[in-house]
Specification:
The complex is a heterodimer.
Chain A lengths: L1 H10 L40 E6 L8 E8 L4 E9 L4 H15 L4 E8 L6 H13 L5 E6 L6 E7 L10 E2 L2 E6 L1 H6 L1 E2 L7 H5 L1 H4 L2 H11 L16 E2 L10 H28 L7 H9 L1 H16 L8 H29 L3 H28 L9 H38 L5 H15 L1 H28 L2 E4 L4 E4 L4 H51 L2 H9 L4 E9 L8 E9 L2 H8 L12 H10 L15
Parallel strand pairs in A: 1-3, 1-8, 4-5, 8-14, 9-13
Antiparallel strand pairs in A: 2-3, 2-4, 3-10, 5-6, 6-7, 11-12, 13-14
Helix pairs in contact in A: 8-10, 10-11, 10-14, 11-14, 12-13, 14-16, 15-16
Chain B lengths: L1 E7 L5 E10 L2 E7 L5 H22 L3 H21 L1 E9 L3 E8 L4 E7 L3 E11 L2 E11 L7 E6 L8 H20 L5
Antiparallel strand pairs in B: 1-2, 2-3, 3-4, 4-5, 5-6, 7-8, 8-9
Helix pairs in contact in B: 1-2
Classes of the chains: A alpha/beta, B alpha+beta.
Protein name (chain B): Phosphatidylinositol glycan anchor biosynthesis class H
GO biological process, one term (chain B): GPI anchor biosynthetic process
Keywords (chain B): Membrane, Transmembrane, Transmembrane helix
């Protein structure tokens, strides 16, 4: 407190020494600070200004006395201290340094005040000297921070040189000291709250709410932190890197190497993508097959990602950089898992065992299907079906299965070799291997798909016929031009034939519906298995692993905001707060940095799925061209 | 300056409200709920284990017993880490913002800080909760697009659910600080 009281005595003021009034809460119904009673002219009430907030880096707390360099944010009345300039210095050099940094960072830096650290007993002359500095570096308001030996509490004073009401008498403000960790604030990336709309979130740094301005200031004044105390500079600074600039040899090497590596890989990738766009692959049947195979979709997706990662232009902003890093980690993990699978598959002849197991399984499935059909051809679950139609449908499907089994047996000698080659593709990544597995399942259950399509088509035909004949039954018809149901007068024979057909269809419906139901359930089973595989692939594709790792190991790098902790407080001294980084919760990390997935799978809502099933429309595991995307 | 008052929550349970006045511009309110009682913990554990033992005598499969132990342990861990909130703190600092902290029984803390520029007001609101009408304190946030609109309502003391008398205490103190903010012309 020594310096403050002395400083005020030197200035010849009679202002109240305790700026921060601690008073009991009940006694202070209106917490606005009283205006300085003596200094101000009688009767004139100064409007209570905002509490002055001094953001002070914790690394400077043990620095020697000197000048506070930083930025003054007038709209929030906050002073962001960035560094301390030590004695001795030449004022003109300090101003030059600030001008240089200002040019590099495009923010207004200034000398904000003085910093006084009493290691020994306070010398009388220093107080006056610091007081005098205020006239050299004129700043409004002029901060005077002082730390005494053996005391945890600091004194802080902000002096206004020009007070509109009473010129000549410097006014004072309430001051609040907020400590921050400069390194963490510099490295952290502030994520605006999710409540903000997107267009607002985009320019959050530009519009700069109170704390975003602080983060922005620290992040942009990196030029100030480049010099450490081993430099032969003229001005000695104290900041987070003043004990030595942080750098890593590995990072520097990686930075040097990344340029040529990216160039080479980008060239290779462009060759691959040129080959894939060759006209041979665009002929009709091939292009159709490519679009339906999930392996091709996955490969295309990976190729796009790799071209994005190794594109030679620099990432524009941090979000793009994070996306690149996330993609790279995702690809690397994918390939690593793929190699693990490869080594597992090719060790101990597992491919052979798998191939030996595959044919019996396919046989078994076909056999089970035959049993099911024979059950359906009798009286399934005690239902009495139309015998003739039942027999026709059953025989048709049985013949189909017979064809399928002979096809499988024709294939069986080659299956091992095919599997061996497909196993090699696991070195492209686990996702590719999984996609191939999904395609194999689709090919092996092709008969189920066929049955489903036949059943669905028959069922759909019956449902359509029944609905139009039901309209005829009621004396109505569907008007195609107006897209509505009109009334219509039918002839007697028309009505007779229509009613007869209606009756026939109604009595045949249960048989078809039963076949449709059974095969739809089988089809849904296959689609579910494929869907689970695709879910796994999508998970590997879209999980932002780099961001998650960053959140786990360096929680301050991704910040959702800040949190404050009130430090020990003594009456009459400024309030001291510790500002800490509030890390982003994991679910928001995933939500913010999720990579776009393949996007080739349809997204049915449950109601539309049920509707489609009821009316016998086909359900595809891929997205149809006419589908509207929800 | 610190004092402690005793209130009750909407179910009649005891709540302790600690008020800390650091300075005229900075206040903290800390609501502590009662800790996890040994009686309820014992009751739940005994129920699960007795049910598991009953199933074991029926099926004679010892997997059920080990599953019951794991379920109790995991359930307790999850409850302490994600559900049970021991203390809720509201820190209001003039011209800086409002900070809400909830400390879980396991020691996890989740903090939300709202800058003063975004705070429109602090109010007490009524809500229908189950079969009764309760009061809660909430913070209204400014809509960045529309100057007079409200973009979001953030409830405070969500898990403690104190009664109106406790809320009024907190509300008055908050309003004192907010009134100071409104008196300053420079505040945005």
């Amino acid at each position: 407190m020594g310096l403050v009281s002395r400083g005020m005595a030197a200035a010849g003021l009679g202002t109240a020494p305790a700026v921060v009034r601690p008073g009991p809460p009940d006694a202070v119904p209106n917490p606005t600070p009283n205006p300085p009673p003596e200094g101000a002219a009688p009767g004139s009430s100064r409007v209570p200004s905002m509490v002055l907030k001094a953001f002070f880096p914790t690394c400077c707390a043990s620095a020697d006395s000197g000048l506070l360099v930083g930025r003054w944010v007038p709209e929030q009345s906050s002073a962001v201290v960035l560094a301390v300039v030590h004695f001795p210095f030449i004022p003109i050099q300090v101003k030059e340094l600030l001008a240089q940094v200002q040019q590099a960072s495009r923010i207004g830096l200034a000398v904000l005040g003085t910093w006084c650290h009493h290691r020994q007993e306070p010398e009388e002359s220093l107080g006056h000297f610091l007081e005098g500095l205020g006239t050299i570096f004129s700043h409004e308001p002029w901060l005077q921070l002082c730390r005494e030996r053996g005391s945890k509490f600091w004194s802080c004073k902000a002096t206004h040189w020009q007070v509109p009401i009473s010129p000549g008498a410097p006014g004072e403000d309430q001051v609040m000291l907020i400590f921050y960790d400069q390194r963490k604030v510099l490295l952290s990336q502030l994520h605006p709250p999710a409540a903000l709309p997107d267009h607002q979130a985009g320019d959050a740094t530009a519009s700069a709410g109170g704390l975003a301005a602080v983060f922005d200031t620290v992040a942009r004044s990196e030029a100030l932190f480049r010099s450490d105390r081993f430099d032969e500079g003229l001005v000695r600074l104290s900041h987070w890197q003043s004990e030595g600039v942080e750098a890593s040899i590995l990072v520097e090497l990686a930075k040097r190497a990344s340029g040529p590596v990216c160039l080479l890989l980008a060239y290779l990738l462009s060759l691959i993508s040129a080959a894939s766009t060759c006209w041979v692959f665009k002929l009709w049947p091939l292009s159709f097959i490519w679009s339906k195979l999930s392996t091709c979709e996955q490969l295309r997706h990976r190729l796009e990602q790799l071209t994005f990662i190794f594109s030679t232009q620099k990432a524009e902003n941090t979000s793009q950089l994070m996306r690149k890093a996330n993609m790279l980690v995702s690809v690397l993990l994918d390939v690593a898992l793929g190699f693990a699978l490869l080594s597992w598959l090719h060790g101990k002849d597992r491919i052979g065992q798998l191939a030996d197991a595959l044919v019996p399984v396919a046989d078994r499935v076909a056999e089970e299907l035959q049993h099911l059909l024979q059950w359906l051809m009798g009286a399934p679950a005690g239902l009495k079906m139309n015998r003739a139609l039942d027999q026709v449908l059953g025989r048709f499907f049985l013949y189909h299965i017979h064809l399928w089994i002979s096809y499988i047996h024709l294939m069986s000698p080659f299956i091992e070799r095919i599997l061996w080659h497909m196993g090699l593709s696991a070195c492209l990544g686990l996702t590719v291997a999984l996609s191939i597995l999904s395609d194999i399942i689709a090919l092996l259950t092709f008969h189920i798909y066929c049955f489903y399509v036949y059943g669905a088509r028959l069922y759909c035909l019956k449902i359509c016929g029944l609905s139009s004949l039901w309209r005829l039954f009621r004396g109505k018809k569907w008007n195609v031009l107006r897209q509505r149901v009109d009334s219509c007068s039918y002839d007697l024979d028309q009505l007779f034939i229509g009613t007869l057909l209606f009756t026939v269809l109604v009595f045949l419906l249960p048989t078809t519906a039963l076949y449709y139901l059974v095969f739809t359930l089988l089809r849904l089973l296959v689609v579910t298995v494929q869907g689970l595989i695709h879910l796994l692939v999508d998970l590997i594709n879209s999980l932002p692993l780099y961001a998650l790792g960053l959140r786990l190991c360096r929680p301050y790098r991704l910040s959702a905001g800040v949190k404050f902790q009130v430090l020990e407080h003594e009456a009459g001294r400024p309030l001291r707060l510790l500002m800490q980084i509030n890390p982003l919760p994991y679910n928001r990390v995933v939500h913010t940095y999720r990579l776009p997935s393949c996007g080739c799978h349809p997204k049915h809502s449950w109601s539309s799925l049920c509707r489609k099933l009821f009316f016998g429309e086909l359900i595809y595991p891929w997205r149809q061209r006419g589908d509207k995307q929800d | 300056m610190e004092d402690e008052l005793s209130f009750s929550d909407i179910y009649g349970g005891r709540l302790a409200l600690q008020r800390r006045y650091y300075s005229p511009s900075c206040r903290e309110f800390c609501l502590s709920c009662p800790r996890l009682s040994l009686r309820s913990l014992t009751a739940v554990t005994c129920t699960v284990w007795l049910a598991a033992y009953g199933l074991f005598t029926l099926c004679e499969n010892s997997m059920i017993l080990s599953a019951a132990i794991f379920i109790t342990l995991l359930g307790l861990l999850g409850y302490l880490h994600f559900v049970k909130i021991d203390q809720e703190t509201l820190l209001i600092i003039d011209s800086l913002g409002i900070q809400m902290t909830s400390s879980y029984a396991s020691g996890k803390e989740s903090t939300t800080f709202i800058e003063m520029g975004k705070v429109k007001d602090v109010i007490i609101n009524e809500a229908i909760y189950m079969q009764k009408v309760i009061y809660y304190l909430c913070i209204l946030l400014n809509d960045p697009v529309e100057p007079h609109g409200i973009s979001q309502v953030v409830p405070v003391f969500q898990s403690a659910k104190p009664r109106l008398d406790c809320l009024i205490e907190v509300y008055r103190s908050c309003q004192e600080i907010l009134a100071h903010r409104k008196a300053t012309p420079t505040s945005s």
